[in-house]
Task: inverse folding
């Protein structure tokens, strides 16, 4: 071997940490997958464009897709299209996933999100805290100009999180779902609305060193 060993982290995104109140978010690692699959709730629908294995029941297929999504998201990461899945840690337990994603972020400065929590941890504000954490990261550290999200009309918890944070209604569309066509409520939060809310003031983000390039931003 010639030259000195290089101790720089090759995948700096793994070092990201978002701390908000009593909730900590860190990128999902392969070693989290078994636990995430164990607590994956039945009401988190899979992407209807994913193909199911005929020999597996729905729950087993969704657990399998959780694994494949992990490998796909890191494997397909590019500045033009990325999905960052965070493990949500509460009281030292892995309790769910909060995803942040964007297409052509450098030009469009718009992020989307998705999330789920194990049922035992719902209804106490965790869903709101984990969304605030990724919004603070996106607006205040990546320079996002807008955040969008969407949920079925009847998904009161997901829409409740968005409304509580200050997203405004942004139209309705028909969408495919595993159980057939459904109506989606779209919502949008602008940078100005986010800044006015001061919701992210106590968010602490660490481990950013080396990550900017992965989002197409200057260090
Ligand atoms: C969506 C989800 C992450 C929300 O997490 P949560 O911790 O339960 O949400 P919070 O406790 O932060 O509640 C946020 C707001 O929604 C309201 N809310 C929560 N659950 C609700 C329910 N079942 N019905 C009506 N309102 C509800 C809360 O009252 C709160 O509003 P408020 O502060 O104005 O009172 C969680 O319910 C979940 O995992 N759902 C299944 C997966 C899913 O649907 N993901 C979204 C896919 S688009």
Result:
């Amino acid at each position: 071997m010639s030259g000195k060993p290089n101790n720089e982290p090759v995948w700096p995104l793994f070092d990201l940490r978002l701390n908000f109140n009593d909730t900590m978010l860190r990128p999902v690692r392969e070693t989290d997958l078994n636990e995430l699959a164990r607590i994956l709730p039945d009401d988190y629908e899979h992407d209807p464009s994913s193909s199911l294995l005929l020999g597996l029941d729905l729950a087993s297929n969704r657990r399998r897709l959780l694994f494949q999504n992990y490998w796909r998201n890191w494997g397909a990461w590019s500045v033009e299209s990325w999905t960052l899945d965070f493990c949500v840690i509460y009281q030292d337990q892995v309790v769910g996933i909060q995803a942040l994603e964007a297409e052509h972020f450098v030009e469009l400065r718009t992020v989307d999100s998705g999330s789920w929590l194990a049922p035992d941890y719902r209804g106490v504000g965790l869903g709101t805290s984990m969304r605030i954490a990724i919004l603070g990261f996106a607006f205040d550290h990546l320079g996002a100009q807008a955040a969008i999200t969407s949920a079925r009309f009847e998904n009161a918890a997901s829409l409740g999180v968005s409304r509580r944070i200050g997203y405004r209604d942004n139209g309705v569309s028909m969408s495919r779902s595993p159980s057939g066509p459904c109506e989606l409520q779209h919502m949008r939060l602008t940078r100005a609305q986010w800044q006015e809310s001061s919701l992210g003031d106590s968010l602490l983000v660490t481990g950013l060193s080396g990550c900017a390039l992965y989002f197409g931003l200057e260090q």
